[in-house]
Amino acid sequence: xxxxxxxxxxxxxxxxxxxxxxxxxxxxxxxxxxxxxxxxxxxxxxxxxxxxxxxxxxxxxxxxxxxxxxxxxxxxxxxxxxxxxxxxxxxxxxxxxxxxxxxxxxxxxxxxxxxxxxxxxxxxxxxxxxxxxxxxxxxxxxxxxxxxxxxxxxxxxxxxxxxxxxxxxxxxxxxxxxxxxxxxxxxxxxxxxxxxxxxxxxxxxxxxxxxxxxxxxxxxxxxxxxxxxxxxxxxxxxxxxxxxxxxxxxxxxxxxxxxxxxxxxxxxxxxxxxxxxxxxxxxxxxxxxxxxxxxxxxxxxxxxxxxxxxxxxxxxxxxxxxxxxxxxxxxxxxxxxxxxxxxxxxxxxxxxxxxxxxxxxxxxxxxxxxxxxxxxxxxxxxxxxxxxxxxxxxxxxxxxxxxxxx
Length: 406
Hints:
Layout: E1 2-4, H1 20-27, E2 30-35, H2 36-50, E3 55-59, H3 61-66, H4 69-79, E4 83-86, H5 89-97, E5 103-106, H6 115-120, E6 124-127, H7 130-142, E7 149-154, H8 169-177, E8 182-188, H9 200-218, E9 225-227, H10 231-236, E10 244-245, E11 278-283, E12 286-290, E13 295-296, E14 302-303, E15 308-313, E16 330-333, E17 336-341, E18 349-352, E19 364-370, E20 375-376, H11 378-385, H12 389-394, E21 402-405
Parallel strand pairs: 2-21, 3-4, 3-10, 4-5, 5-6, 6-7, 7-8, 8-9
Antiparallel strand pairs: 1-21, 2-11, 11-19, 12-15, 13-14, 15-18, 16-17, 16-19, 17-18, 19-20
């Protein structure tokens, strides 16, 4: 069964009527399919792998890496997920409004002005400085909250982005002990390169995190939840599981390639059997013959060396198709690969279908996904575009309709 991402309320005239906008969205010749079956499988795979030592906090920030945070969160909740991680209070409030009852961790901390939303929606923010505590304390007093606000301290163990440095942690712990409306529930950190499985720096990060836990305990605090492992570390560093892990990319069916700092060789034996959950599809908009010597697309990005047959697709970089795939990427048409030719433009892309018989307007085209015997992954896009699959998935435009399959 395939279900559209958006189900607007029925009008009084007809219980099944859709708005003109919804009907137009349904009819768009470019869409994203998300397999909730694959998502559930991936969660179960990760959950089984770390149990009983740890629980899974599902990272669904940035609209679940382009998969649609609300629908993914609801499916994961049905599968038994108890924790979700997002970036901002806005993301967390949207999940609450959609019916997510589990715990929601805010990875980006507390931004001034959103502290009351955090309290109202029972969100769990990361904290790493005194100002965070002050904002939360003041919000709790203004709202006359009777429930203590659970927080997780983020510790900088070497990533050098967000987090409290180890020398400053005792002072932060002192502030936590003196904050009547705040409860230190957790402490966590983040790896810089956990996919390099024999990287000594990552071992150093684990050691620093253990020192941070000891400092908190010395200050009289005993955070119940301790977490550090992202998707790669779930596989490469079980010593970093502590009692909660935070997989993101693996939930959606991908891992960064595991490599050795010594050999620099990939090691696919470390992969877990997760399945890509997202497929991206479109349809042929026009087919034309192009004579030898003629150009295709902007700036003469491609010049035909012989007579070719070209199909035009209603998708481009405005929809999130990486422009670096111009003249380098490929798609699947009629269970065969077709090369992208010319420069990808904002809303249109041209492909060479010369050797594929019978291509016509309306044919389904797979940008990411698979057919009977062909497959294109976000990893392939990332490799061609010299980036990472996170970038490819997150940049698939949210204006494209999502269709969820069970």
